[in-house]
Amino acid sequence: MSVSRSVGTAESRGVAGGDSAGAVTSTSGLRKIVAASMAGTVVEWYEFFLYATAASLVFGTFFFPNAGTQLDGIIAAFLTYAVGFVARPIGGIVFGQIGDRLGRKHTLQVTIVLVGVATFLMGCLPGYNSIGYWAPALLVALRFIQGFAVGGEWGGAVLLVAEHSPDKARGFWSSWPQAAVPVGNLLATLVLLTMSWILPNDQFLSWGWRVAFWLSAVIVVIGYYIRSHVNEAPIFLEARAKVEAEKAVSYGVTEVLKKYPRGVLQAMGLRFAENILYYIIVSFSIVYLVTVHQYNTSQLLLALLIAHVVHFLVIPQVGRLSDLFGRKPIYLIGAVLGATWAFFAFPMFDTLNPVVIVAAITIGLIFHAFMYAGQPAIMSEMFPTRMRYSGVSLGYQVTSILAGSLAPIIASALLQQYKSWVPVAIYIVIACVITAVTVLTLRETRGLSLRDVDSADARKHGLVPAGGS
Fold first, then answer.
1. 439 to 41, 306, 398, 417: CA distances (angstroms)
2. 323 and 169 in contact (C-beta within 8 Å)?
3. With contact defined as beta carbons under 8 Å apart, do 458 and 465 qualify?
4. The domain spanning residue 388 has which CATH number?
5. Against a cut of 0.70, is the pTM above it?
6. Domain span holding position 193
7. Across all residues in the chain, what is the average pLDDT?
């Protein structure tokens, strides 16, 4: 995962000349910020998605052996999975408030430790057959802590990059933390795939899956170290100084809901279809192929592994497209393409051809990238610096309850009820329509200066701009 080679050409598009947001003026400095953001994000999403894959493959039988049918056990496991999504907006609110007040860097250091400890302890849990209902209860508690930490992670990670980025290339640079998400998922899949290859199925289900959770401790140390060596963006330091100097200036969740409710709702609408599509692709696809076709687990994990590599490579390039052609048209393309995916993907799954299955999952993640890559830039440009962490975290994380957390559950329930993938496809279409309508309500912000966003906020609410007198 070499960021330096891929981002080197960005200097010609604005890094060397600096920008009005006070971005890092050297390419190497911006690469360091990107690496720090990605390092922690890889760790936290490795751990978050590790749970998703384990819920599909292991937790249904390990923690819920008396659930009834195989799908019943999987649905029960996904319900505990959803607890993490419920916790995410709480974490977004708490850490958003802290991040807007104290800074992005220190907040990110706290979140990476929290999620690491919770994930390591998940790997130590005994199963239902050992301690009964305490097993799923402890799993839920740890999942809540994990989700709480991840809820504060995303906003800080993307803003650390977005607030250092040049205006004309913000879409490209800030898409790199998004690209770290498939890397985290890739690592989780790779570890589980390796364990499922080298161990008999009974050993994998009894203890092999735990190794992936324990390995998180090593990655946390690396991510924490890298994050400790970056600085806050100048525009944030100026905004914080203003808040400290003028106690009447407010920040945080309450203020963003009062002053920018439209922005929060638009952020939620943008997130809706993207989040649902992603979890249908990476979680429910496994459920469909395992329960309907009894497809080989190792082959499924390999398919996801290949698709995650492609996803990682595509995301920054789509971010670049959003700088060239605008945030709105690129996002709208993603919503339209996403609505079509299920109608050809599930027939491709039904062929049981490994190459065709890999192609279906990979195409889905490419469609997803057209919505996902531009999110940090779009959402950063919606809110002023004094409440940006709270605004993006709230819009992003609250939606995860209504979208990503429920998507595998709803899809599994639809499959169980109708014995067909068609209702799942219709579900995705409805989500994509909601997101497409939201995109049409946006104003185009490509190339917008974050200082201009702060100045507009100051004029609108009778404040002195950060750095002003």
1. 26, 30, 18, 33
2. yes
3. yes
4. 1.20.1250.20
5. yes
6. 25-233+256-461
7. 83
